[in-house]
Amino acid sequence: MRRAPAEEAGLEIADLTPFGTEYASDDAGAVLPIAIHAVPATATPANSA
Fold it and tell me: What's residue 4's pLDDT?
């Protein structure tokens, strides 16, 4: 989770806390977990100006 935001959007999320998991399925019935994380309200993108 930390790698994708940093590589694709330039986001550095220091205080990422696991919050829960949801599950999504496609038309073929494949089920994938989606991790949900909490971030403090003071978190900002590293590249914001």
Answer: 62
Average pLDDT over residues 9-33: 86
Query: Which whole number is the average pLDDT over 9-14?
Result: 69
From the list 1, 4, 5, the residue with the least C-alpha distance to 33 is 1
Q: What is the DSSP letter of 39?
A: -
In angstroms, the CA 43 to CA 13 distance is 7
Q: Is 4 helix (H, G, I), strand (E, B) or coil?
A: helix
Ramachandran angles phi, psi of 21, nearest 5°: -135, 135
Helical residues (DSSP H) of 1-49, grouped into ranges: 3-4
Q: Domain residue spans in the chain? A: 15-40
